[in-house]
Amino acid sequence: LPGGGASLRLCSTRGAQDGINKPVIDRIIRVDHAGEYGANRIYAGQMAVLGRSSVGPVIQQMWNQEKAHLKKFNELMVAYRVRPTVLLPFWNVAGFVLGAGSALLGKKGAMACTVAVEESISEHYNNQIRTLIEEDPEKYKELLQVIKQFRDEEQEHHDTGLEHDAEATPAYSVLKTVIQLGCKAAIFLSERI
């Protein structure tokens, strides 16, 4: 990955399957792929509205990291033979609408959306890290490394949103709560469907 990011050695399909808890790994990779796909669509929507504004380069930088995250989860889907969620067409539209809609509120609105989403995702990644450590930290060492790195980068995006006045958005707490409820629903559904 750019910037010295974690890489996960792709193994043969059989090697990737040996000794893993397939239902747990399928659920983790499926939902993380869906989440990174949705994040890409959110940033695409924000860039469509604010790309030429003063905050455009900040959004682009975060989007570039999300693109790298999605690329890695695309690779993991193949390596572990995980099917994507059937909800990807919905996340395609919903993500873009959320990104563009929040950006229509201005820079602060876009950053409020970023804070809400990235806080939810960081918490979600922390739960996955705990699950994998409980399963077998040595067996899932490489996957843990990827998830920890991505969690840290999502936390940076969260902090960037706060630094760019997310909390000054009108009705910030309501907006944040609604977006986070949507994130929780998306996580729940994407893990299962």
UniProtKB/TrEMBL annotation:
Pathway: Cofactor biosynthesis; ubiquinone biosynthesis. PANTHER family: 5-DEMETHOXYUBIQUINONE HYDROXYLASE, MITOCHONDRIAL (PTHR11237:SF4), COENZYME Q10 BIOSYNTHESIS PROTEIN 7 (PTHR11237). InterPro entries: Ferritin-like_SF, Ubq_synth_Coq7. GO terms for biological process: determination of adult lifespan; regulation of gene expression; regulation of reactive oxygen species metabolic process; ubiquinone biosynthetic process. One of its GO terms (molecular function) is 3-demethoxyubiquinol 3-hydroxylase activity. Keywords: Iron, Membrane, Metal-binding, Monooxygenase, Oxidoreductase, Ubiquinone biosynthesis. The keyword Membrane applies. It comes from the Eukaryota. One of its GO terms (cellular component) is nucleus. This is COQ7 protein. The keyword Metal-binding applies.
